[in-house]
């Protein structure tokens, strides 16, 4: 299993700081405040311009809508900070005293307020504004998504995906709308067309869309104030009419796209409401990162905040398929990849999912450094390779990527040493046991004493030290090893005789299989860092494994005897499942949900 750790991800390119975020941006912020019973009682929306000073301060001016009231002009200021990876802490312009968990890309800032203790759920985006005069035409075509709560009511929720193209200035071609609305067709997906839709564009990148008179019988109607990003790749907007709380986000269409076109790392965010499904949370928001390698898999790290659950971490994978114009599907969502692969958007749109959800992302900044350089976006789970933002956990195998980190490659045998080939890794100042070192990748174990909410990571190579990288810490951060070393696809699962579970040798209902993973945290009895363990039980409970969405409690959950940092779950394949072939294998701990791999069942 440990040979799966030495997988090489694409090399990355100057770290970020407050100075990276400066100048004028257009922004949209929607925040939903719920009462103790889950009723939407305090919706707020803000649309306008935000100016960052490059020194940790911002000012804004915009139109704010609260509840069912008419829009009012608002001006205010706040603070922000940008860390070297692009993670941003931003004072919320809508909720005083709270901070948006935001992320910075070269053309956009995205985020959601995931760490506040109040009962609010939001979505924020700010796009870089043009610095000079631009043409008064729309530089499309675009693929757009929207989420709307007309009148500030969840019972009126609607979400859509639609095309925006123009052959005549000021006039859209027919707009084909795919979406669903809580008050239409029992909430099921449907299609409509909007004819005679129009737009205006000013020389400063601001404008408006008109989709006809506002109507609850239409998936898409009414007017929107819109903004176009400096590079023309993104359109951001919303309705400022009385009682309007909506979000519009569009990406410029691609040409000649295939699945291989989607090959980059992104920061993202999303917002969801569930008026028609009493078994699901009424609302949730998330800040995220996503990774695509052109192979048809979109891997997510999401920091969720949801009604009744608070904040928790999610890692998972969607299978995507793109058409030539960049639009396509990703499991239950309709998605679109924008021009140059710089941004993407999506909307949950499937009869199997009644929720109303939109999400979007922007390509991460490329980071680099001289000497011993540890990429701040590349301290990853050594099994799942879930993208930046996924926390580290005590005892976890982590993969560190950078440049100049070692003079050559070397592998250690258990027990793992604190120094290997003159390389040391410090986590919160404590030496981490090392399994593998090379110039561009290191695999290490997080010391069991590591505690959150964050930890610092430094690589020392000889007498030289790397930059300091700060990462989140959690009690657990599960990652199941994959047979192809990608973090996705068939999981590292063995039969009781230690043969591999695969298509040629599938598991059968009722059989107990062995699942190998990392990131499951502290164990009892305690084990010294890097030492060869015996049987030792995972402390984090309750712990569930989902096989084809059927919950199973492992008969053994602990360290794999003889292998530091390698955890083992003994899981009985449920007799209740009726599907065959590769089925999802997911891990649920008190603070995290991991769903990236499958197990083959016959």
Fold and architecture overview:
This protein is mainly β. It has three domains: 16-366, no CATH class; 367-472, Sandwich (Immunoglobulin-like), CATH 2.60.40; 481-601, no CATH class. 0% of the residues lie in helices and 49% in strands. It contains no helices and 47 strands. The strands form seven sheets. A nine-stranded antiparallel sheet has the order 12-11-10-9-17-16-15-14-13, with no helix packed on it. A hairpin with a 5-residue loop joins strand 23 and strand 24 (343-348). The chain is globular and about 70 Å long. The protein starts with 21 loop residues before the first strand and ends with a strand. Mean pLDDT is 95; it is low at 6-13.
Q: What's a quick, concise take on this entry?
A:
By secondary structure, the chain is mostly beta strands.
Radius of gyration: 24 Å
Q: Major sheet: size, sense and barrel closure?
A: 9 strands, antiparallel
| Number of domains as seen in the coordinates | 3
Instruction: Describe the strand arrangement of the main beta sheet, using strand numbers.
Output: 12-11-10-9-17-16-15-14-13
Arithmetic mean pLDDT: 95
The outline comes out as: globular
Sheet-strand content, in percent, reads: over 45%
Query: Count the strands?
Result: 47
Helical proportion?
A: under 10%
Look at the helices and sheets and give the structural class.
mainly beta
Query: How many DSSP H or I helices?
Result: 0
Q: Alpha-carbon distance between the termini? A: 24 Å
Unreliable runs, pLDDT <50, ≥5 residues? 6-13
């Amino acid at each position: 299993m440990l040979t799966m750790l030495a997988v090489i991800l694409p090399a990355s390119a100057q770290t970020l700081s407050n100075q990276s975020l400066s100048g004028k941006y257009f922004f949209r912020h929607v925040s939903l405040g719920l009462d103790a019973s889950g009723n939407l009682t305090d919706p707020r929306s803000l649309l306008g311009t935000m100016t960052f000073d490059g020194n940790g301060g911002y000012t804004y001016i915009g139109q704010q809508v609260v509840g069912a009231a008419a829009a009012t002009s608002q001006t205010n200021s706040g603070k922000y900070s940008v860390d070297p990876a692009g993670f941003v802490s931003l004072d919320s312009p809508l909720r005083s005293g709270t901070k948006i968990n935001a992320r910075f890309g070269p053309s956009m800032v995205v985020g959601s307020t995931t760490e506040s203790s109040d009962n609010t759920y939001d979505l924020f985006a700010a796009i870089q504004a043009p610095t000079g005069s631009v043409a008064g035409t729309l530089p499309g075509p675009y693929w757009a998504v929207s989420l709307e709560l007309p009148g500030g009511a969840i019972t009126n929720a609607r979400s859509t995906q639609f095309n925006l193209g123009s052959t005549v200035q000021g006039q859209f071609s027919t707009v084909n709308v795919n979406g669903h609305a809580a008050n239409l067709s029992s909430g099921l997906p449907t299609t409509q067309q909007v004819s005679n839709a129009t737009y205006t564009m000013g020389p400063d990148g601001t404008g408006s869309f008109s989709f006809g008179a506002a109507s609850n019988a239409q998936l898409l109607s009414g007017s929107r104030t819109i903004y176009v990003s400096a590079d023309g790749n993104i359109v951001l907007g919303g309705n400022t009419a009385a009682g309007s709380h909506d979000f519009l986000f569009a990406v410029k269409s691609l040409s000649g796209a295939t699945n291989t076109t989607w090959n980059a790392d992104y920061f993202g965010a999303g917002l969801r409401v569930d008026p028609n499904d009493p078994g699901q949370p009424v609302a949730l928001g998330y800040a995220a990162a996503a990774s695509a390698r052109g192979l048809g898999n979109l891997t997510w790290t999401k920091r969720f905040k949801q009604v009744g659950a608070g904040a928790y971490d999610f890692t998972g994978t969607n299978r995507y398929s793109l058409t030539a114009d960049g639009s396509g599907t990703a499991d239950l969502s309709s998605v679109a990849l924008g021009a140059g692969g710089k941004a993407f958007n999506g909307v949950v749109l499937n009869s199997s999912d009644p929720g109303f959800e939109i999400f979007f992302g922007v390509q991460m900044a490329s980071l680099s450094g001289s000497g011993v350089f540890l990429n701040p976006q590349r301290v990853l789970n050594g099994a799942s390779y879930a993208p930046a933002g996924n926390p580290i956990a005590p005892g976890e195998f982590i993969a560190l990527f950078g440049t100049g980190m070692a003079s050559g490659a070397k592998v250690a045998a258990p027990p793992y040493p604190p120094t290997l080939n003159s390389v040391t890794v410090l986590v919160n100042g404590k030496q981490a046991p090392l399994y593998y070192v090379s110039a561009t990748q290191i695999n290490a174990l997080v010391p069991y004493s590591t505690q959150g909410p964050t930890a610092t990571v430094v690589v020392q190579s000889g007498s030289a030290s790397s930059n300091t990288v700060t990462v989140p810490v959690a009690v657990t951060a599960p990652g199941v090893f994959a047979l192809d070393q990608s973090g996705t696809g068939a999981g590292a699962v063995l039969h009781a005789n230690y043969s591999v579970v695969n298509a040629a040798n599938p598991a059968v209902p009722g059989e107990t299989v062995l699942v190998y993973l990392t990131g499951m945290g502290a164990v009892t009895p305690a084990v010294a860092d890097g030492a060869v363990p015996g049987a030792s039980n995972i402390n984090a409970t309750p712990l569930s494994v989902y096989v084809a969405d059927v919950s199973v409690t492992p008969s053994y959950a602990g360290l794999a005897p003889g292998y530091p940092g390698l955890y083992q779950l003994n899981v009985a394949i449920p007799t209740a499942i009726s599907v065959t072939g590769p089925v999802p294998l997911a891990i649920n701990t008190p603070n995290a949900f991991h769903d990236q791999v499958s197990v083959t069942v016959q």
